[in-house]
Structure formats: C-alpha cells, structure tokens
Write a structure and sequence with these properties.
alpha+beta, BirA Bifunctional Protein, domain 2, SH3 type barrels, five-stranded antiparallel sheet
C-alpha cells in the first residue's frame, strides 16, 4: 500500500512513465532511487500491535552517488514544491490505498503494484542474509514475497536486496 501511494504521489510531480517500483521498498526515477520506504512493526504471530511507515523522498536534491553502488540517488528537482504539499498528496493517496485494501483485499493492492514493477519478467538477483538467488522476476505472491523463476523452479523470497542485471 505504501509503495502504491508513494508512486501515485510522485506521479503528480513527474511523468509516471519515468517511475517504477523496486521490490521491496524503493521508488525509482529513470532507474535511480528517488524514494524509499521503511516499515517497522511489533506484534506476536500473525497479529501486529503497531506499524510505522517511514518514507524518504529526494524532493530537491539527492545525496552523492557512491561508486559501485547500484541505483544512484536521484532527485525530483522540485524547488517550487514544499514537503507539506507532497505529504498532503501522499496522505490522500495512502487513504485511497487503505480503502482499496478494505474493499477489494490484498489482491488489488498487489495487482496495482505489479503494474508499476521495475524489471518484471527480467533476470534479477536477490541477496538474502543466507544466499544469493538469480532468476526471472515472475511476480509477488499473495503475501508480498518476491517470486523468482530459477533453474530449480519458483522461489518465494520474503526479504532480500534486489539487483538488476
């Protein structure tokens, strides 16, 4: 939901054709990282007691790129737009995503996310804490996991850093 809301927000300020969503938590502008999302939660089992959604967007400028790191930081270059204006649009879009979730369930959120997914159908690499998995980016499943088609079949990956070939 957060990624969809952020994508829709940024598409108000730049061409949506320049934007894409990189699983699990980044928004790309012309293949550079323009925004990121950090989720923190607490709970037990399948129950969540609280959820905090942090969003960072390079509105005016971007930090310097680090040599050899993929997805160099980029900026929207919005010198005439205030953070409050962007936040207002984001809040409205987040409310829309919450309403979609309540009315249609996660499948609709997933469907909307996939329409904006970076490199869907391409070879990508997912690095987890335990292994590196290379495969074709097939989808995200009903739990939001990355699904890669590998030489040994489909792999569902709940958390990883993703790199494009």
């Amino acid at each position: 939901m957060a990624a969809n809301a952020l994508f829709e927000t940024l598409s108000i300020f730049t061409s949506r054709d320049r934007l894409s969503l990189k699983w699990p938590n980044d928004v790309l502008l012309d293949e550079g990282k323009v925004a990121g999302i950090l989720l923190e939660s607490s709970g037990s089992g399948t129950y969540v007691d609280w959820l905090s959604v942090g969003v960072g967007v390079n509105l005016v400028a971007a930090p310097p790129a680090e040599e050899g790191k993929p997805f160099p930081p980029v900026s929207l270059g919005l010198e005439n737009v205030t953070p409050i204006e962007v936040l207002s649009v984001l809040c409205s879009n987040f409310a829309t995503q919450e309403a979609k979730l309540a009315r249609f369930g996660f499948d609709r959120i997933r469907e909307d996310w996939l329409k904006q997914a970076a490199r869907l159908g391409d070879q990508i690499t997912a690095r987890t804490m335990k292994e590196t998995v290379r495969g074709t980016f097939d989808t995200i499943d009903g739990a939001g996991n990355l699904v890669l088609i590998t030489g040994t079949g489909p792999r569902s990956i709940p958390a990883a850093d993703v790199f494009f070939e």
